[in-house]
Design a protein that fits this description.
138 residues, mainly alpha
Amino acid sequence: MRLAIAVMTGLLALGACGKAGEAKSASQPISESMAECAAIFNVTALTAERKGKSAQQVSAMREGAGAFREAAVKRAGVEGASRPEADVRKTYAEKYAKWEARWLGSSDAAFILDARENLDWVQYCGKMGKAHGVLPVR
């Protein structure tokens, strides 16, 4: 598992460049994608913390997760959700469980097999965060 986390950490470092899979937002509402990005940011923060990354780096990831959650609630309201906060809370919990199992609970082989999609999601979140003013990405 350590090898897989090291591989993904290297991929995350490259994640700010490249082309994200734009099809992600087409398959689910933007608010759901934002909640998923919040989960991904929190799981990567946990991974970074376990790998001994700086408190500043971990904090920045957690702040990004919080920003995505707030944006998801606002967006869910725009999308017509009658209970935006409750809906996002539920979606976030489901997505967090998915990504926690995928990043922290999978075998090295499964982790590596999922690396392309994981990287696509990281890139997508960065681009969506920038496009919607959620993240201060350049």
